Amino acid sequence: MQRARCYLLGETAVVLELEPPVQLATQKRIWRLTQRLADVPEVVEAIPGMNNITVVLRDPQELALDAIERLQRWWEESEALEPESRMIEIPVIYGGAAGPDLALVARQASLTEKQVVELHASVDYVVWFLGFQPGFPYLGTLPASLATPRRAEPRVRVPAGSVGIGGTQTGVYPLETPGGWNLIGRTDVPLFNPALPEPVLLRPGDTLRFIPRKEGIC
């Protein structure tokens, strides 16, 4: 079992953080712990991350030290959550104006742009967690050869729907925002729509596959 450490975060929260590496089995246990904490009256919110969980407390001055002890114990007792996994297909135009960094990723990987597209779209990705923006999915596992360092200078404007690679991760920007990931494509599928009863398209545990649109393959 991966070792975990708990610590205070600011004045309102405690964090349980696991030592590397990031593993899907561990992430499933984080999902289960998040579910369990939803029923704890002293907890305002439990926020799952990659290899960590942040717990916002209702009365941190009184509960922080007790919460650290209980969080550690609950982690040791936790089991994996096998959520109902939906298969979501996301059509993507790769390259060109939709993916201005596709050539850079190809050079980094010593592949052609067409090979990058085929490899990126060959994987059934799992939504490990949502963060950064409403509905932004952190997906695992990106083929190792496509891992590309984030841009030294983030873009001021990344269009909504942009598909990017940042280090060893890939994901989709639901909203227009500044960002430093390498953009390889774009989708028209809305990942976040506040007007809908369920505004976020994806859930942790969902399986996602990118479908290249023919006009977008280089």
Number of helices: 4
User: Could you give the order of strands across the largest sheet?
Assistant: 7-6-13-5-12-9-10
Largest sheet: 7 strands, mixed
Unreliable stretches = none
Estimate percent helicity.
10-25%
Strand content: 25-35%
Radius of gyration: 19 Å
Descriptive report:
This protein has 218 residues and is an alpha+beta fold. 22% of the residues lie in helices and 32% in strands. It contains four helices and 13 strands. Strands 7-6-13-5-12-9-10 form a seven-stranded mixed beta sheet. Strands 1-2-4-3 form a four-stranded antiparallel beta sheet, with helices on one face. Strand 3 (43-49) and strand 4 (52-57) form a beta hairpin. Helix 3 crosses helix 4 (113-120). The longest helix has 18 residues, at 60-77. It is elongated and about 55 Å long. The model has no long low-confidence stretch (mean pLDDT 91).
Give a concise summary:
This protein is of the alpha+beta class and 218 residues long. It contains 4 helices and 13 strands.
